[in-house]
Specification:
Helices cover 81% and strands 0% of the residues. The chain has 148 residues and is mainly alpha-helical. It binds protoporphyrin IX containing FE.
Length: 148
């Protein structure tokens, strides 16, 4: 395998891990925001500022994470060819991860507009979705199940 392929895969893993670190922590901030008493404006503003910065940061990380993945697939040809079901399943879950990322933005907007009606318990369950997505994607790409 070429050095270029190995460098691209290393960068892919670095950006993927950083992006998901944000997707693991952001819902945790939402759990805290959902439990802030109505009168605690300073606490609410502090958590909102952290959430806005973290959302912006992990949006910046998502782009190179996806770019290097596409490079591995479309330029280096990893996962191309018949029976490579793992990459198709992985891409489905990646679409799910991008969707999850956008739901995080909508939830942030709800908190900013004092529109959130969800409980902290809902956000605790929501938080587990990013962990399950990450685990499933990593298992697919490492084990690489194929057809036939
Ligand atoms: C557009 C989206 C993506 C595409 C096209 C893509 C494609 C790929 C490809 C082709 C490889 C190389 C596999 C190999 O060399 O054996 C790879 C490696 C990897 N991908 Fe992605 N990927 C994407 C997004 C993601 C995401 C969101 C995650 C998050 C968990 C992820 C996690 C990984 C990991 C951990 C590896 C290294 C696996 C290994 O070393 O065996 N990828 N990806």
């Amino acid at each position: 395998m070429s050095q270029a392929y190995l460098w691209v895969k290393a960068l892919h893993i670095i950006f993927v891990a950083s992006w998901f670190a944000g997707l693991f922590y952001l819902p945790r901030l939402y759990v805290n925001l959902a439990t802030v008493p109505a009168g605690s404006h300073a606490e609410r503003e502090r958590l909102l500022m952290m959430a806005r910065k973290l959302y912006r940061f992990c949006s910046l990380l998502m782009v190179p994470a996806l770019f290097f993945g596409l490079l591995l697939w479309l330029y280096f040809g990893i996962g191309k060819g018949p029976g490579q079901i793992w990459l198709h399943l992985k891409l489905l879950l990646v679409i799910g991860a991008v969707g999850y990322h956008h739901v995080c933005r909508q939830l942030l907007r709800d908190f900013e507009g004092l529109q959130n009606r969800r409980s902290h318990r809902w956000f605790r369950v929501f938080n587990e979705v990013s962990v399950l997505l990450f685990a499933a994607i990593v298992c697919l790409v490492v084990l690489k199940p194929t057809l036939g």
